[in-house]
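SAMPLE LOG
Freezer: B-3
Tube label: C17
Construct: single chain, 345 aa
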Amino acid sequence: MSKKVYIGNTVIGGNERIKIQSMSTHKISDIENAVAECLRLKEEGLDIMRFSVLDEKDASSFRVVKERTGVPLVADIHFDYRLALKSIDGGADKIRINPGNIGSEQNVREVAMALKSAKIPVRVGANTGSIEKEFLNKYGKSEISLGESALKNVALLEKYGVEDIVISVKASDVNLAVKAYEYVASKTDYPLHIGITEAGTEYNGVIKNAIGIGALLLKGIGDTIRVSLSADTMREVIAGRSILSALDLYDGVKIIACPTCGRCEWDCMEFAQKVEKYTAKIKKPLKIAVMGCVVNGPGEARDADLGIAGAKDCCAIFKKGEIIKKVNKDQVEKEFFEEIDKCTR
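STRUCTURE (predicted):
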């Protein structure tokens, strides 16, 4: 079991729920847009938001955005350790750095001292573009070189007394990323931030992340996730929620829907999409089935809390495989959504 690390008003690690992260496409110093994005994503299930810090104005903006949103905020720092120090002063709940690219060990020491003083954690983020040369020369581009690069930088922070650490070892190659996380998980009990970096556009990116993140979570590896996509950040959060829901790791509505066949005599696919939209913000655990026909729909979906199956002239609504009512097709949406509301009160 990984150790617990506190990030603002949330916790990652231990037996805590897997937390969903995203990274803003706005500068945090663009206060209104930063706040609006955080609130929009929070409503969809976001737990933690990360912002790039490019200048002192960014570094000083964390506190006001946090106060207006209640979302724990991470400052993403590269190259300039002074921006890490200013972000800590500016109210960031966590710092993300690669110690190898912020200069001398003295710089790392100053960041470490500031982290301890503020009592906030740090994520050591390694990726295939930042593998330490000594490990790259010895092991090539592999899970060992990637993992050891992260662990070397963790050890540097530990040297100066930092104990609240999160680790990531991301790669765009799914196999490499999974192996790297497995390697690091075997070496440490620090919580792990998992994901597939530079995964691509939404369709292929979700597939790559679902395979990689899912493979790790099924092995009990991972404490917080980001589904990196070349798409709206909202899609990252929705995809993360869906991955966790598929693994029964998220309290929300799980929808099972029939792929349909020639027996289907109603628009099951469109109705499933309506149900998905209607239940998107419900946080209560609930399994809903939208099935194509009554021939085997209720039977196949016997474990569903609520379900519906279509016939030629009507639809049957059922609970745990037992039909509770039949309704005309023009009343299906009204009747079924009322049953959903009953289940979620």
